[in-house]
Structures are given as C-alpha cells and as structure tokens.
Design goal:
By secondary structure, the protein is an all-alpha fold. Helices cover 67% and strands 2% of the residues. It folds into 2 domains: 2-147, Four Helix Bundle (Hemerythrin (Met), subunit A), CATH 1.20.120; 152-287. The protein contains 10 helices and 2 strands; from the N terminus they run αααααββααααα. The protein is elongated, with a radius of gyration of 27 Å.
Length: 288
Amino acid sequence: MKGHYKLALTALLILLAVLPVQSFAKDMVAKEPPKSLDKLYPPVNKEQKWVQQMHKISGHFGGVFVDMGEQDWENAEKHAARFVESYKEAADMVPEWKDYFDHESARKFAEEVKTRDAARIGKAAGPVGKTCGKCHDDQYLSVWTRYHWPSADKIAITDPVDEKELKYGKYMSLLSGAFKGVTVNFGEGQYDRAKKALGGFKKRFMELKSVCSKCHTGDAVKQFYVGEASAQAFDGMEAELNSPKPNPGNFWKHVGTLGYEGCKKCHLTHRAYAIVQEIWEEKEEARK
C-alpha cells in the first residue's frame, strides 16, 4: 500500500507540474483568432467542436496520471495513445496554430508511458505541457472573447421612455446621460429636476433585465445586476427626493449602492470583453 501511495503522490505532483496553467503574461496581446476556428463554433457549427477537442486532449493527458497513480498501466497506455491521436487532430483543425504543436514530444511521451517509470514519464510530459500552456497564454483570452461572449453590438433594446429601438451601445450612452441628469441636478440642489430625471433613469435601468435575459434565461436573472439591491436603492433615492428636505448623505449612499451593485459589477464582468470586441470591429471596418 505504501508503494501505491508514493506512486499516486508522484503522479499528482507530475500532473500539477506539467498541466498548462493560465498564467497570462502581462504583455499578452488579444489578437483575433484565425478564421479557420469559425467552423468549429456556432453559428457556423452547431457544436463547440474546438472545446470538445480540448476536453479530449486534457482528459487523455490527465488520464495517464490518474491511472499511473492507481498502477492501472493498461489504461494509462490507452490514454497516452489517444492523447497523441487527439493532439494531432487538434493541430489539423487549426492549421494557423501548427507551430504550437510538438508532435515528436507527444509521441515520446506516449512511448515513455510504456516504460511504467514515473520519473521518465514526468520528464517526457514537460515539453508537451509547455506547448499547451504556450497556446493558452497566447490565444485563450481571444478565443473566449470571440466565441463565448456574445457581442453587445448585436443586441437591440427598446427605450421604455421614447419607445425607440436602439443598439445596446447607444442605449447605454442614453442611460449614462439619464444618470447624470439625476446626480448633477441633485448636486445643484435642483431636487424637482432630479426627481423628474430619476423617473426616466429608473425605467431605462430596470429595462436592462430584458437584455440580461437574452443570455440569462432563467429566473436567476433577477439576482444579477438589476436585482433587489438595485430596486431598494431606487426606492431610497425616490424617498429622499419626495422628502421636504432630502438628506444628501442618504441619497448618495443609495447612488453608491446602485453604482456598485448594478453598474460596476456588470462592467467588471462584461466590459473588458466588449472593449476587445469593439477594437476588432473597428479594425475590420477599417480594412473594408
């Protein structure tokens, strides 16, 4: 049993050492993914073929070490052979990324598994793991931005105030302007104007639920950025503006809650991807 434990521990340490880690260098540049990747994702393909292929590679690579730790060498060798197959398949799927693949290192890794020597297997796994890590460092963010985050530019929303359909970017600019109408007027002591502006701003803000629900299709959408905390903040702002003598401290506290729970959390989640997409779209327009 002690020997099995040591082998399992060795396998775990090797796996942790060679598996690609999403370190992402500070100088990383989000380049657009190659066009050949389009056919491996919706809408061109009904399935996310590239993701499936990555799971195959990762599953077989990791499977070697799981079985090695259990001294199930027969299955370890099977995983090694299938790893080489899936590794080659991935290289053929995206020709532009051929330089990320080291087929000789992959083949050598599978051969070393047959020796059943943990040290030799770990040493052979290192170069293969580095190829995966290099590709992830260079391409992971770009692929997620292109294929896993829908472009906000394709989203349209009906303005509940003017009843006009607007692109999402235009709508957000309108929303920002409405917010400033509330805060600027309140800061100037123009409480009647602030109250009027708040009515339109609240309608436009709460209408964002219709945008969230395009991706978040369940009832949980109410728990996101246009949820109970935001509704309570609006109630608090309205209460102050309906008061004979609004309390600035309370009013700005509710503004802060709305800004953090609604605006900031949404931007932290979505804005960076949207910025990258916008840059790519501008470059595409410039090339036309």
